Predict the 3D structure of the following.
Amino acid sequence: MEILNVSNVNKRFGGLKALDEVNLSVEQGHVHAIIGPNGAGKSTLLNCFVGRLIPDSGSVTFLGKDLIGAKPHEINQIGVSRVFQTPEIFGDLTLLDNIMIPTLAKRDGAFSLNAWARVDGLGEIRDKALHMLEDVGLAEKKGMIADSLSRGDKRRLELAMCLVQDPKLLLLDEPTAGMSRADTNNTIDLLKRIGERGITKIVIEHDMHVVFSLASKISVLAQGTVIAEGKPEDIKGDPRVQEAYLGG
Ligand code: ADP
Ligand code: MG
């Protein structure tokens, strides 16, 4: 079953055509990788899925619902969660607070941080957040200030902030960028475990080791256009893909 459908999406930045008639079909439960050289339009495309950018034309639907024109929090509320290329965390709050905030946001919709102490059922929210921290291996650091974490741990924290919202579709923009090989392998394991929960994932990734470990389908984007699509074993040997990467 198709969970996300992208049809003929176009996006211009002034004279630059960042997305040119992009089509994409993502199947429920799959890991769909989007690869392509720097500047290909990968992050721009994800931004069109979460309400950060509005395409100039074309359609994006999630489980049949139109995402274009929807606000980021509305898209989040219906089950689409995103991990950014640069971690977006609350740097001066503890890890536990960082997880409790999105847990609460998901339960209550928008809420005011000023009303934090008066929220009902905070104990339950805290328990859920603690479980999540355990799941990603950060439980021992729950009282630490998020900014003091290593880069790898920050990315893990951001992933946990998404996962705690029980998304149906998780968008990951270069989840292992800047990580050591050991951290990368831990992240692959974590993403595989998430896979067992049936969360559909779209992963933008440069590291081919990660792509081939996780993806069941790959779309190759170059200069805003999907130039190839298929199973990992088909994409590996595709001459168009090699040309796009090797400076064709
Ligand atoms: P990728 O994620 O594949 O590396 P991006 O989607 O970030 O590529 O960018 C695609 C192209 O659009 C690049 O040439 C980039 O410079 C340009 N671009 C991205 N965002 C903006 C923006 N907000 N304003 C102007 N140009 C942008
Ligand atoms: Mg990018």
